[in-house]
Design brief:
Shape: globular
Number of helices: 16
Distance between the termini: 85 Å
Helix content: over 70%
Structural class: mainly alpha
Largest sheet: none
C-alpha cells in the first residue's frame, strides 16, 4: 500500500509544475514568486528572486502579480510607480487593485488630480461584486468624513460594521471610534472598548494607544497603563508620551515619567522638569 505524499513533497511537485509553465504563464510565474517570497517548498526566502517572478507574472498577464507589485510600491509611498501596476491589476479584474487604485485617486497620489467622487464609485462597485473588507472600510470612512459623498454617519458606520465583521482591523478601530463618540449610533463605551480591543489584538498599535486614552479618561490608570505599555512594545511613539502623562496623573511614579518621556524627542523638557521638581535634597 503506497503512503500518501507528505506536504513537503506536494509543494516540491507543485513548484516543479509551476516552473515548467512559468515562461509564458503569468499565474505560474506569480505562484513561483510566492514560493520565493515566503520560502515554500525547497526555496529559501529570496526577495530579489520573488520580485523577478512577480514582474514576469505581471508581464504575462497575472492580475495578482500586478497588484502585488503595485501594493509593494504603494507601501513605500512610490505613488507614480505604484499607480500603473494597480491600474493594470484593476483592469485585469483584481478587486484589491481597484480598491487601492481608488485610494490613490481619492488622495491624488500618482494621478493628475484627486477625484474622491470616482474613488467612492469604484469602492461601491467593488462591494457590489465582492466581500472586499478594505473597500467597505474606505466607503465607511468616506461617508463619515463626507469625502466624495454627502456626509452620512449612519451609512458610514454601517459600512464599517460590514468591514469589521469581515475581519478588517482598521474598520474595527474606526468602529470603536464611532461608538466612543456616537457617530452613526448612540455612544457606547463598552462597545467602543470591544472593537478597539479587537483591533488591538490584531497588533494595531494605534488602537492600543486609543484604549489607553479611553481608560485614562475614565481614570482607570492601571488599565490605561497596560494598553499604553502594549502600544510602546508595538512601536507606537505616542504611547511613550501618553504613558508618561498617565503615571504623572495617576500613580505619581516619577521614575516612569522620566523613563518613558525621555525617550520621546521634544519631551525632554518635561522629563528634566519633573525630575528637578521632585528630587529631595
Amino acid at each position: 500500500m503506497e503512503s500518501c505524499p507528505t506536504d513537503a513533497v506536494i509543494k516540491i511537485k507543485a513548484l516543479e509544475a509551476f516552473a515548467a509553465a512559468a515562461d509564458g504563464n503569468g499565474n505560474a510565474a506569480y505562484k513561483i514568486a510566492t514560493f520565493y517570497n515566503y520560502g515554500i517548498g525547497t526555496l529559501p526566502p529570496n526577495g530579489d528572486s520573488a520580485m523577478a517572478y512577480y514582474i514576469r507574472g505581471h508581464q504575462y498577464g497575472s492580475a495578482d502579480a500586478s497588484y502585488f507589485i503595485g501594493h509593494h510600491l504603494l507601501k513605500q509611498n512610490r505613488y507614480d510607480e505604484a499607480v500603473p501596476y494597480l491600474t493594470t491589476a484593476a483592469n485585469r479584474g483584481s478587486a484589491e487593485g481597484m480598491t487601492e487604485y481608488a485610494y490613490c485617486l481619492q488622495n491624488g497620489w500618482g494621478v493628475p488630480q484627486a477625484d474622491p467622487f470616482t474613488a467612492y464609485k469604484i469602492w461601491k462597485y467593488v462591494t457590489q461584486h465582492t466581500n472586499n473588507s478594505q473597500a467597505y472600510c474606505l466607503l465607511g470612512v468616506a461617508c463619515l468624513q463626507g469625502i466624495g459623498i454627502v456626509e452620512d454617519d449612519v451609512m458610514g458606520k454601517a459600512y464599517l460594521d460590514t468591514a469589521a465583521n469581515l475581519g478588517n482591523t482598521i474598520a474595527a478601530r474606526n468602529l470603536g471610534v464611532c461608538y466612543r463618540n456616537g457617530y452613526g449610533c448612540d455612544p457606547d463605551t463598552s462597545k467602543a472598548i470591544q472593537w478597539l480591543e479587537t483591533a488591538a489584538n490584531n497588533d494595531d498599535a494605534t488602537s492600543m494607544n486609543m484604549l489607553g486614552n479611553l481608560y485614562k479618561s475614565m481614570k482607570q490608570y492601571p488599565e490605561a497603563v497596560k494598553w499604553y505599555e502594549k502600544s510602546v512594545e508595538a512601536g507606537d511613539m505616542d504611547g511613550y508620551c501618553n504613558l508618561g502623562y498617565c503615571y504623572e496623573e495617576g500613580s505619581k511614579d516619577i521614575s516612569y515619567v522620566i523613563k518613558f518621556m525621555d525617550k520621546v524627542e521634544g519631551d525632554v523638557y518635561y522629563a528634566v522638569y519633573y525630575n528637578e521638581d521632585t528630587t529631595e535634597d
